[in-house]
Design goal:
Length: about 110
């Protein structure tokens, strides 16, 4: 999706795509690029916090607990939060590209639609 979004500006007009649809998919891509790395960060935090809780509850010692794991903090400015079902929306714009009478195999390869 990221590759497609980097290449589509050169073909948006040629393929007669709706500019609003392209903007919506760009926002989707921006949010996907934000959420996927954060999922890993949140999972690592979750594991750290669970380990901390287990140490508090079960031990192995009666020693003073260390500091709580640091909670990840989202940036002050978040990307636009789009509608859900990225796959369907991305699939729609790909289908619209392929329906264009100006669509060629070469354009498809450049956009990443093998």
């Amino acid at each position: 999706m990221n590759h497609f979004m980097q290449e589509i500006p050169a073909y948006e007009t040629v393929l007669g795509l709706d500019p609003a649809e392209v903007i919506a998919v760009k926002e989707l891509n921006n949010f996907v690029q934000f959420v996927f790395p954060w999922q890993t960060t949140i999972q690592l935090y979750s594991k750290s916090f669970t380990s901390y809780k287990h140490q508090l509850h079960f031990g192995p010692s009666v020693a003073l607990m260390g500091a709580l794991p640091i909670i990840p903090v989202y940036p002050a400015v978040l990307p636009v939060i789009p509608l859900g079902n990225v796959r369907a929306q991305f699939s729609n714009i790909i289908q619209n590209c392929m329906k264009s009478p100006n669509f060629t195999k070469d354009i498809g390869l450049i956009l990443g639609n093998y």
